[in-house]
């Protein structure tokens, strides 16, 4: 009853908060409409398009500030109430107000345009952004057109002449068109663009028959469109082209959009982690390909706006990245799908981690001076910026489902282990224990057995939940098998930070028996640290675990493939980054009278006395399978 009451109170609190937000938003919009009527001397500039809106806005603001005071959106805050707040914060003495106008659903741009009433409007490009919300790219073009078609007769439309869909929109507007692009008839014509790290983007453009060199402080040839659009906005506002070019010399982009971050250890990050539509991949990777660096690394998170299935998309994206980068790291729920692009099981140029913290531990060891690292992701889904933050400070929140679309450096939860996060791993980080080859090994059997003197052939991991409450449950069958094996070998257990360890010999092979001291669903980092601590080759590890798809007493082995829904396996695959290429001994735990029951309802129920014979038989079979796996070298 108490839990139901708490749940009811939480729901009531959320309902009140939601209602308060709705009332606040309506008040903001009502006041913004009144304020907009009074701002007759301020020129409003609207910027829309499938890509480059925020960068165009930032560069345009840098130019227009040379002419007078300017108000604008902060970062990419472009929802309707946020647009209203920009208007409310615009002062009567502001010469310009530059507002990014985006869309999520049909009608969004028309609604925002009616509120803003821009006199100058820029349209960068029409691509398949938000394609799932619209039926076609033509429908997306119609949505973008709403702002351009609403411009007044004395207004100016700054348009990309190289995009056929934008051209068709320009043909329908009543405003004067100022075209930019590489086509000969462009008003602001691109002659040449170069950008090869570490050199920033430099353009040669032609305007009114004169060529100009435009040196910027930003990176990537794909940002040519925002640069040209910003110049167009400046000219439409009355700025001489020389003023526009001078302003672009030191203007920078909003964080997370081709932002260069140089670390003190000589690693340089290219942060393009705000959003990652699939159509933008080839463009971003082209920049990495042309860069001059000792080693190129691509870290890729969740991809958005694609028409292929995820099982086909991620391997395709991986192959594109592998053609450019020396090391490709996929992070997130689709990371293991990307590993299908590997040429072989020994191909370590492509790795994947479903959990961000596991990726962090890998990159802490892997990245080195001279590396140029592209961070490409969708921030609202991944928050990959934590990979960079964790190199400088302690990060305890590694969750990926917080729902915030802000960057994590501004989040007060960063130093708190989040609910549902890997609490066991977080506690290890908080205690000051670090991963890597420099960890001193605990004694195994005697003080003489250290990481410097023992290099066992195999690591045998029994999977289960640490704690007395789980003893005798199906989920702990891996622990039970290892206990039975240690008993046979007269091996002694010793407690370490990672779990229970025992050193023994099995058929003339040195083995480490390991039972992680955490929940099975979180055991991956513990297995990875133990593997590294004792110098065991990644191909010489065997996992013993429960399998609810097999009947009690049935035991089988498997050497590759998916995790089959077993979260413990998923955690290990993520921590090791091997995509499931690992030996496992599957021990059946389903009773014949529970054939229709879910796996979740089975694995935490204690075995009964009548199950003893089948359990003992299963443990014996599992040990035989372990011996077979070792004898066959993992095959």
From TrEMBL:
Domain Mur ligase C-terminal: 256-378
Residue ranges annotated for the Mur ligase central domain, each copy included: 47-233
Short name of any one Pfam family annotated for the protein: Mur_ligase_M
Keywords from the named record: ATP-binding, Hydrolase, Ligase, Nucleotide-binding
InterPro entries: Mur-like_cat_sf, Mur_ligase_C, Mur_ligase_C_dom_sf, Mur_ligase_cen, MurCDEF_CellWall_CoF430Synth, Pept_tRNA_hydro, Pept_tRNA_hydro_sf
GO molecular function: acid-amino acid ligase activity; ATP binding; peptidyl-tRNA hydrolase activity
SUPFAM superfamilies (UniProt xref): MurD-like peptide ligases, catalytic domain, MurD-like peptide ligases, peptide-binding domain, Peptidyl-tRNA hydrolase-like
Keyword Hydrolase assigned: yes
Record PANTHER family: UDP-N-ACETYLMURAMOYL-TRIPEPTIDE--D-ALANYL-D-ALANINE LIGASE
Protein name: Aminoacyl-tRNA hydrolase
